[in-house]
């Protein structure tokens, strides 16, 4: 059972939420993501992809705050998705010390830089905002452990795709996990850039 082998803090949260049984997608994907491999995760809507993203991120960071630089980055399509995911993370981080920060295009970049500088563990952002932060030295990737992309179908658009490639070129060593409903050929092309030796979980 994938849930049984997660950090005790996560198990307590799942119990409070009355989540006891993993979905078929979670049963297959969580052990592979925990192994540290780069993973393409493709499954239909409501298969438990976003919950998997949250659980594996928290597990990777051992549910505790460390240092100031982000150790997990999650990229999403837009402000709405960013805020939605931020709220979802908060329901799991309420009783641990992890610091979650959300950034998006509409929020002034200097504000984001100064707030990130104060210390975050999990940074949720959009590709364009993240790329801008990179170019302005507004975020350090020296401590990054896991880089996830939620509902990655939007990356089929060229501009977002270019921003992702630009961001990942500056990252030394990190695990990448990409979640989408379908494994589009344009997403598979990331194998040549940052998804090397990746595994595929498809439901």
Account of the 3D structure:
By secondary structure, this protein is α/β, with parallel strands linked by helices. The chain has one domain: Rossmann fold, CATH 3.40.50.300. The chain is 40% helix and 14% strand. It has helices spanning 8-16, 24-34, 49-60, 79-93, 109-117, 127-135, 158-169, 185-188, and strands at 39-42, 72-75, 100-102, 122-125, 146-149, 175-180, 199-202. A seven-stranded parallel beta sheet has the order 3-4-2-5-6-1-7. Strand 5, helix 7 (158-169) and strand 6 (175-180) form a beta-alpha-beta unit.
Question: What attributes does this structure have?
Answer:
40% helix; 14% strand; single chain; seven-stranded parallel beta sheet; Rossmann fold; alpha/beta
Record the SSE blueprint.
Blueprint: H1 8-16, H2 24-34, E1 39-42, H3 49-60, E2 72-75, H4 79-93, E3 100-102, H5 109-117, E4 122-125, H6 127-135, E5 146-149, H7 158-169, E6 175-180, H8 185-188, E7 199-202
Quick summary of this structure?
The chain is α/β, with parallel strands linked by helices. It is built from eight helices and seven strands; from the N terminus they run H-H-E-H-E-H-E-H-E-H-E-H-E-H-E.
């Amino acid at each position: 059972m994938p849930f049984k082998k997660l950090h005790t803090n996560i198990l307590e949260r799942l119990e409070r939420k009355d989540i006891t049984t993993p979905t078929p997608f979670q049963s297959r994907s969580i052990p592979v993501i925990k192994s540290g491999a780069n993973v393409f995760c493709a499954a239909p809507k409501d298969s438990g992809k976003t919950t998997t993203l949250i659980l594996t991120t928290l597990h990777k960071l051992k549910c505790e705050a460390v240092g100031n630089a982000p150790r997990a980055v999650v990229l999403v399509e837009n402000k709405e998705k960013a805020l939605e995911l931020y709220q979802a993370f908060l329901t799991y981080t309420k009783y641990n010390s992890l610091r979650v920060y959300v950034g998006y295009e509409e929020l002034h970049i200097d504000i984001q830089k100064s707030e990130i500088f104060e210390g975050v563990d999990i940074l949720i952002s959009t590709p364009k905002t993240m790329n801008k932060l990179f170019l302005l030295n507004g975020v350090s990737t020296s401590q990054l452990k896991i880089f996830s992309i939620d509902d990655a179908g939007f990356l089929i658009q060229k501009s977002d795709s270019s921003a992702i490639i630009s961001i990942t070129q500056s990252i030394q060593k990190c695990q990448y996990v990409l979640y989408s409903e379908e494994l589009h050929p344009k997403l598979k092309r990331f194998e040549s850039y940052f998804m090397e030796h990746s595994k595929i979980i498809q439901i």
